[in-house]
Amino acid sequence: MYVRKQIFSGLEMESAFLWGVRQAGKSTLLREIFPDSMYFDLLKSDEYNRFVANPSLLREILTVPGIRQPVIIDEIQLIPVLLNEIQWLMTNLNLRFILCGSSPRKILRSGANLLGGRALRYELFPLVSAEIPGFDLLRALNNGLLPRHYDSANPRKLLSAYIGNYLRDEIQSEARIRNIHSFSRFLEVAAFSNGEMVNFSNIAGECGISPPTVREYFQILEDTLTGRFLPSFQKKPKRRVILAPKFYYFDPGISGFLLKRAKIEVGSELFGKAFEHFIYHELYSHAHYLDINYPISYWRTASQIEVDFILGENEVAVEVKGTSMVTPRNLKGLRSFSEEYKTKKSIVISNDPLPRKVDNILILPWKIFLQKLWSGEIIK
Q: Which residues contact 309 (CB under 8 A, 6 or more apart)?
């Protein structure tokens, strides 16, 4: 929790939206940081019903003197019309708000009031390694990084409930998906594209739906923060490169469960892909939490030479290998990329026991890489 409190210390100064998937820890974080703030939870049926029936009730409550700020409203997307009252209170009474929720889709799609730029936007992701004392990589890959899941001795039941209650039921309802069977099938088929280039036509054939519907379903996953695309790096290529994006679910545990993956062990065939997914999660979270917002992409040529992650405008090239001994063959992608683009750093993240350097390529054990990443030594 200490790391999260550091990262989100700016919440004390300005009104903000705080988005994040269910069970990422938003409510716990806000109650830790603001134990005395006025707090409204719209998941409670009584509070939801009161404000749906009478949105102006919020203004009546908050015009009373002595309100402890910031005022926190949880699951704001359930009643977007409240944003009109919130804007009035911010403008006329200078009240500060933190508005959190599991998905901005309903607000964005409804054209609701976004407070005219008066509120900053933050996003809370599943846990990262820097937040977890005694971080256990295999636990993260098997359980996932949602706090309850990571800590659980029996994560399979929690993962099953999460996918059933949230990914299928709640997101289907929010997106008003009529063909429930096709969306459920899509969630599973999309897991096979996790960490892979997306072929909309192939997925459409597997699900029995049209490619435009597949694109719409992927957009729903993006809008609800449950998946994201990794674009290909296309800066002035000399070689012919692949243009299709890759796709990742928001959490390695979720994708593993959808794939019905067996228990992951170091050195197993399953380890490499899950390990790569985990590193992507760390990179993406790092870029956003530290407000550096460097772009992340991947590079692959038509001849199948690939680098897993390009950070920034080709400043850092990163290859992820599950092996405990990186060989010259594993360096082919980084060498090819450095021939075409000038990079500041080329790094292989692996299970090697000790760091070493081959030519200009740094081979780092994953623990050391993560320490350097979060201390600001990889990219600034």
A: 279, 280, 283, 296, 297, 298, 317, 318, 319, 320
Start-to-end Cα distance in the chain: 24
Residue 106 contacts residue 80 (beta carbons within 8 Å): yes
Residue 1 has pLDDT above 60, yes or no: no
Q: Pseudo-torsion of CA 294, 247, 22, 74, nearest 10°? A: 50
In a shared domain, residues 257 and 285: yes
What does the DSSP 8-state code read for residue 167? I
Backbone angles phi, psi at 50, to 5 degrees: -65, -45
Looking at residue 2, its pLDDT comes to 55
Cα distances (Å, whole numbers) of residue 379 to 107, 281, 373, 375: 34, 16, 7, 10
What span, in angstroms and rounded, lies between the C-alpha atoms of 133 and 224? 29
The C-alpha atoms of residue 185 and residue 200 are separated, in whole angstroms, by 14
Residue finishing a domain among 93, 124, 155: 124
pLDDT digits (tens, 9 = 90+) for 289-302: 988 889 999 999 99
HSE-CB for 329 with a 13 A CA cutoff: 2
Q: How confident is the model at residue 232 (pLDDT cuts 50, 70, 90)?
A: very high
Q: Is the peptide bond before 70 cis (omega within 30 degrees of 0)?
A: yes
pTM beyond cutoff 0.85: yes
Residue 57 burial (CB count, 10 A):
15
| Range of the structural domain that residue 311 is part of | 130-374
What's the CATH number where 117 sits? 3.40.50.300
Reported as a single tens digit per residue, the pLDDT across 93-103 is 999 999 999 88
Q: Domain end: 124, 148, 177, which one? A: 124
**In this structure, are 290 and 189 located in the same domain?**
yes
- Which residues pair with residue 345 across a beta bridge? 316
